[in-house]
Amino acid sequence: MVTKSEAVERAEAYYDSGEADAFYQAIWGGQDIHIGIYRDDAEPIADASRRTVESMADRLIRSDASTRVLDLGAGYGGSARYLADRFGCKVTCLNLSETQNALNRTLTAEAGLAELVDVVYGDFENIPEPDDSFDIVWSQDAILHSGNRTRVLDEVSRVLVGDGQFTFTDPMQSDTCPDGVLQPILDRIQLSTLASFGFYRTELTARGFEESRTEELTDQLRMHYWRVGKALQDRYDEAVKMSGQTYVDNMIKGLQHWVDGADRGYLAWGIMDYRLTA
Questions:
Q1: Distance CA 225, CA 188 (A)
Q2: Nearest alpha-carbon partner for 100 in 83, 78, 82
Q3: What gap in Å lies between CA 34 and CA 31, rounded to an integer?
Q4: Which residues contact 41 (CB under 8 A, 6 or more apart)?
Q5: Which of 4, 84, 183, 258 could bond 116 through an S-S bridge, CB–CB 3.0 to 4.6 Å?
Q6: Taking Cα atoms as reference points, which of 9, 232, 266, 48 lies closest to residue 140?
Q7: Domain coordinates of the chain in residue numbers?
Q8: Does the CA dihedral 241-242-243-249 come out positive or negative?
Q9: Are 266 and 174 in contact, with CB atoms under 8 Å apart?
Q10: CA 37 to centroid of chain Cα atoms
């Protein structure tokens, strides 16, 4: 029997909630609920979020009908549908929220991509797929929710084929972040730690990965959390009707903690590419 960590269970309950589901669909980015890459501070959140998908897709080492992709923490499946439509590849969406999975399946069917995109319930600490199953493991801003990130990386290594690619983003702390300063953020997301570029570099190298390219884009993390916070304030009454005043007020406060942390140099974000060589 698979045992979920407490962090995974908390994340599942949160993303299954009606308040969170309404917020992420209406405010955060729609089909793409991850950090965006913005051209300016007025660009729509959904457009910037889709640009992150496009930027990551441009880095793929394999991108044809024979490519097998695993999307960890796939959310509503926007990235999976983009990859399947653009490249014709087969994408497996692994996601712990059945609320999100249901919409993913509906949108995928409506897009005519059900034969290419498979939506699987599960978590990245216990990937329900055989060894050597995928050419690419893809993940966007999901691994932070794990209470055992080294276990996640073990699983990524296990399901990737030799010379496979791990391309991902994750909200992190900077490598020079002082102890204790991120407690408001950690309390908000109910975690004890964040990863860092250095953490991933060390842990992935130890598992036989070689770093191909890391693009640090921490300014985009700051921009994204600021933009989402501004959108909540601009659409406050609408958001309260969807998610309730307590949820919205807490979200606005929590987003500001991320903005402040980025301004002080405590946070990090970027696109990371690694190849499995061992």
A1: 14
A2: 78
A3: 9
A4: 223, 226, 227
A5: 84
A6: 48
A7: 6-276
A8: negative
A9: yes
A10: 14
H-helix or E-strand spanning residue 92: strand 90-95
Please give the CATH architecture assigned to the domain spanning 6-276: 3-Layer(aba) Sandwich (3.40)
User: Within 10 Å of residue 156's Cβ, how many Cβ atoms?
Assistant: 25
Helix (H, G, I), strand (E, B) or coil at 181: coil
Of 110, 55, 105, nearest to 83 by C-alpha is 55
pLDDT cut 70: percent of the chain above it: 99
**What pairing do the DSSP bridges indicate for beta strands 270-276 and 117-121?**
unpaired
Contacts of 95 (CB under 8 A, 6+ apart): 73, 74, 75, 101, 104, 119, 120, 121, 122
Which residue, 141, 82, 158, 161, is CA-closest to 117? 82
CA distance 111 to 107: 6
Nearest Cα residue to 261 out of 165, 158, 154, 183: 183
DSSP state of 143: G
What pLDDT, in 10s, does the model give residues 125-163?
Answer: 999 999 999 999 999 999 999 989 999 999 999 999 999
Predicted local confidence at residue 2, as pLDDT: 62
